[in-house]
Write a structure and sequence with these properties.
The structure holds 2 protein chains of 2 kinds. Chain A is mostly helical. Chain A is 60% helix and 8% strand. The chains are: A mainly alpha, B mainly alpha.
């Protein structure tokens, strides 16, 4: 299991995960990220938009041109969806490997 | 709540112009949503303080990003000029650091001949970096806003200017500016 060079930072991964359900505006992303991380990641506007800019520049998310209110909404792009999928596969494989090793160490003990 | 938002809006002016133009509005809107969701004024103040504490980090990061991007678009001669200017400043920096770490008496004077030859190098470094910066500003026709985004252009000239002011404000400098080279060397080596 090779760790990919383009592996996403934790905050970027959490934002993509938050946007995987539907397009969201800033505060919705913050709330979803906090919920998904069980309160471990508490974003503030500065950190949020630093990551949003980076993800936008990388083409992983994009701004919705039409929004129902004055807020700016962001959605996952196809590339972003693929990056999230790759990331999730990596974590899934890592968790499975960890479980296998745990089982092995319990059996040998 | 408008006071809290106003407190947040002021330091946003420190963000790089391009970033501020695009993201300051959403940042304020997001903070407003966050504040509205809080039950007590204590909780609102805590959210504001967290948001404010993050701003210097955001600003530094964005300036670094813009500086890096500006460097990528800079002509090769500009990069070369600035790098040479920075290298020319190094001996003076080393000299001063040596004196700070291990005071050898009266700063530059105590280092004798070295001080005499290093000061003109600092001036040369300053002149070169300033000239490069002026050429780039003129060639790229940068306006004030663009100059702020290309802050990296000013790092070496400003550092160099600081060193020139420091060097020529030093009491040993009259030896260098006093007269002919023989007098200068005697003056400095006498300490």
């Amino acid at each position: 299991m090779k760790r990919q060079a383009n592996q996403l930072p934790q905050v970027a991964f959490s934002i993509l995960l938050a946007l995987s359900l539907k397009p969201r505006h800033g505060y919705e992303i913050i709330k979803q990220v906090e919920e998904d991380s069980a309160g471990k990641i508490k974003l503030v506007p500065g950190a949020l938009y630093t990551s949003i800019k980076k993800l936008n520049d990388q083409g992983l998310i994009e701004e919705l041109s039409e929004a129902s209110d004055s807020r700016r909404y962001y959605k996952l792009t196809n590339t972003g969806g693929k990056a999230l999928e790759a990331e999730l596969s990596y974590y899934q494989a890592a968790v499975e490997l960890g479980r296998q090793r745990q089982t092995l160490s319990t059996e040998t003990a | 709540m408008s006071l809290l938002l106003h407190t947040y809006k002021q330091p946003l002016k420190l963000l790089p112009p391009a970033y501020r133009e695009h993201y300051a509005g959403p940042m304020i809107q997001t903070l407003e949503d966050m504040l509205q969701d809080q039950q007590s004024s204590f909780a609102r103040t805590r959210v504001l303080l967290r948001a404010l504490a993050d701003l210097p980090i955001t600003a530094s990061y964005q300036y670094a990003q813009e500086g890096g991007a500006a460097m990528n678009h800079m002509p090769t001669y500009a990069k070369g000029g600035m790098l040479t200017g920075a290298v020319l400043l190094l001996p003076f920096f080393v000299l001063i650091t040596m004196n700070v770490i291990h005071p050898l008496g009266d700063s530059l004077k105590s280092l004798g001949y070295i001080g005499v030859f290093i000061l003109p190098v600092v001036v040369l470094g300053f002149s070169l970096s300033l000239l490069t910066q002026l050429l780039v500003t003129k060639k790229l026709s940068l306006n004030l806003k663009q100059v702020q985004s290309n802050w990296v252009l000013f790092v070496v000239p400003v550092l160099a200017l600081g060193m020139v002011i420091f060097a020529f404000g030093h009491d040993s400098v009259h030896c260098i500016t006093a007269g002919n080279p023989h007098q200068v060397i005697r003056c400095v080596s006498r300490g």
